[in-house]
Write a structure and sequence with these properties.
The protein is built from 24 helices and eleven strands. The protein is α/β, with parallel strands linked by helices and 681 residues long.
């Protein structure tokens, strides 16, 4: 059972946790907020003990401000029997030479030593400062008994300075805490010691300012063994989320006492002691859900919360990355390309290579896949070669997905009904007879019964067509992703040794595809507007309408009783036929039934037409001539002159700005690639 749960976790949760760690490794938090857990609390709240219990790492202890920079703790559970590993390093924002303390740790205590030494190195780089507000220390820990979790340890809240401490430290710590707590994707782990009144706790006051609704704050109650006698009930109420309630609630942990620390009691014994403490406690052992107590339950809750937030925010993060990429590329375009030195012969070589790549991309567009070097390389696994089959992927994935999404949007014709046994009420569909009667009534003019006003059909179809926009836009993005991914793969296969040229062509392809997407989106608006006005000269509409009416007649005909010869009386058939034409139904019921049949027939006509038109539009705007466009740009005699003739002399600020934007673009590109890899998790 444990192995199956671990396997399920590895399939679903581990990729999401790894994604955030990898994004943070890129330094993506410079560009957008990412889901994370920040540990906040007073200097004496037991914050370090909580982290120590979660990880087994002996964090530096002392009096006053011990944590002098943010420390990121990345934990990963490995298979049973695997070797314990740990590494300590500095965040991606650190641009200087790595201190010698960076690297593998030999033991848990060695991790604490490295944290202390790296903290000193950070402070020394800032001119023997007392606090480091910009960079963080990263601890990566892998072990069979580790929790799958990443948390960020923030410095304890500073109210007054100690001897030799600058007043500036208070402002720096405050700014760092505020920066993390105010990020809407940060879960605030508020550590509160049970020796103080919860209502007046500083950390909860701060979290309320950043998170007024208490939607992303978890309270952790520490030192329950030190609760003053008579104060137990307020902490029990908090634990049960009665007083100062939080959306994510509270948990309680009992960590090592100072005596246990002095005696070197192992964490395994401490956990055993913790379980026994809560089980036997007269307040917390009864009337409190056991899952709210203990460090293991805290770790599980934090992992669940973090994984859920990552999954919820991932689509929005991807959109933000795409938006920032577009903006960054626009700025880079204004600054101009970064041109390496070359000569006239190199220009001709580049032009030939780009023309060749353009031809291969054109083959992928046409679905011909003629070039064996690219599309049938025996050294390439079949699964990777299949990813180059552009048209196959578009037809089998993007178009099928679009078709299914559009068909799923057909309005229901079900009438409101109540199940006699269960009493469950099924609501009437948008195209039920009752609702269609209402649509006809509100548009009633001087027309005779049975004379349907065109605006009724137009209004009803408009409501339907509005829903087609989202899947249509999604298909454009899906096809654009396939076109870009295949084109870039071809570029990388053709130019393994030319890194700069690869990057340039990838940027060109992204721009070309993005421009095509914008054009396609504009044309889609016109197409949707046309579909809002019902129209057709296709006989399929009347054929379908007649089939629907005939089907209604046949269905009623099947209910007629037969005589001993298997025959049905002529009079009964005439009666059924009369009933199918309206029978004794009111004018309104007949009109609504006719309208329902027409809507169903027109739906089938319109949805088939729109699916074909939109697939053709996407093919024309997004897929066709990508390769030829790239080739034309590459053959332009002025395309490579700057690169071929050498680097241009530029102002230092321009060079640095281009470097900064190029680094940001690369960071965002890598981030989008990482996000794409876990899109279906």
């Amino acid at each position: 059972m444990g192995d199956s749960l671990t396997h399920a976790f590895d399939l679903k949760a581990r990729p999401l946790l790894d994604l955030i760690d990898n994004l943070r490794g890129l330094g993506i938090e410079q560009d957008l907020g990412i889901p994370q857990i920040a540990v906040c609390g007073d200097q004496s709240s037991g914050k370090s003990s909580v982290l120590e219990a979660l990880s087994g790492v002996s964090f530096p202890r002392g009096v006053g401000l011990v944590t002098k920079c943010a420390t990121e703790l990345r934990m990963k559970r490995t298979p049973a029997g695997s070797q314990w590993k740990a590494r300590v390093s500095l965040s991606a924002s650190w641009a200087h030479e790595q201190p010698e303390e960076v690297g593998e740790a030999t033991s848990m205590s060695n991790i604490g030593d490295k944290i202390t030494k790296l903290t000193d190195a950070l402070l020394k780089q800032r001119g023997d400062a007392q606090f480091e507000p910009e960079h963080s220390i990263i601890v990566e820990l892998e072990a069979p008994d580790a929790h799958d979790l990443t948390v960020i340890d923030l410095p304890g809240i500073v109210r007054t300075t100690t001897v030799g401490q600058s007043e500036e430290v208070i402002a720096q710590v405050e700014a760092l805490l505020q920066r993390y707590m105010e990020q809407e994707r940060t879960v605030i782990l508020a550590v509160i010691e049970c020796t103080r009144d919860i209502a007046t706790g500083d950390v909860l006051t701060r979290s309320e300012k950043a998170d007024p609704m208490g939607l992303r704050t978890i309270g952790v109650l520490t030192k329950p063994d030190l609760i003053p006698e008579g104060n137990e009930q307020q902490f029990k109420d908090a634990l049960n989320n009665i007083s100062k309630p939080l959306k994510l609630g509270y948990l309680m942990v009992k960590n090592r006492t100072q005596k246990q620390i002095d005696e070197g009691v192992k964490l395994a014994e401490v956990r055993k002691d913790e379980l026994e403490f809560f089980a036997k406690h007269k307040y917390f052992g009864v009337g409190v859900d056991p899952v709210l107590c203990g460090i293991d339950n805290l770790a599980k809750r934090l992992t669940d919360v973090l994984v859920t937030r990552i999954r919820d925010y991932l689509p929005q993060m991807r959109r933000e990355v795409s938006q920032q990429l577009r903006e960054t590329r626009k700025k880079l375009t204004v600054l101009g390309e970064w041109t390496p030195a070359n000569d006239a012969d190199a220009e001709r070589i580049v032009q030939r290579l780009v023309a060749e790549i353009g031809e291969f991309i054109s083959q992928a567009e046409d679905g011909s896949y003629r070039n064996a070097k690219i599309f049938a390389d025996p050294a390439t696994p079949k699964q990777q070669l299949e990813k180059l089959m552009m048209m196959a992927r578009i037809r089998n994935d993007a178009q099928v997905k679009f078709r299914d999404q559009i068909n799923a949007l057909k309005p229901s014709t079900n009438e409101e009904a109540t199940d006699e046994e269960t009493g469950i009420v099924t609501k009437a569909g948008a195209w039920s007879v009752d609702k269609l009667k209402r649509e006809i009534q509100i548009s009633r003019g001087r027309e005779l019964p049975g004379m349907l006003k065109p605006e009724v059909l137009t209004r009803l179809m408009h409501a339907v067509v509005v829903g087609w926009k989202e899947p249509a836009l999604m298909m454009i993005e899906d096809v654009a992703d396939i076109v870009y991914a295949v084109s870039v793969d071809i570029v990388r296969r053709c130019l393994p040794q030319y890194m700069a040229l690869r990057q340039h062509l990838e940027l060109s392809l992204r721009r070309i595809v993005d421009d095509r997407v914008e054009k396609c989106r504009d044309e889609l608006s016109s197409s949707l507007h046309q579909e809002e006005l019902p129209h057709t000269i296709n006989h399929y509409f009347m054929d379908t309408l007649n089939k629907i009416r005939l089907g209604t007649f046949k269905k009623r005909l099947d209910t007629l009783p037969c005589d001993n010869r298997g025959m049905v009386s002529k009079q009964a058939v005439i009666g059924v036929y009369s009933e199918s034409l309206g029978g004794d139904r009111s004018n309104e019921d007949q009109e609504a039934a006719d309208l329902q049949a027409m809507l169903e027939a027109y739906w089938k006509t319109a949805v088939k037409r729109f699916a074909d038109v939109h697939c053709g539009l996407v093919d024309r705007c997004v897929v066709r001539d990508i390769g030829r466009t790239l080739s034309r740009e590459g053959l332009d005699s002025g395309s490579w002159s700057g690169m071929a003739m050498g680097l241009l002399d530029e102002d230092h600020t321009v060079v640095e700005e281009r470097k900064r934007l190029a680094a940001k673009e690369e960071r965002l590109n890598q981030a989008r690639k990482l996000m794409d890899e876990v899109r279906n998790v």
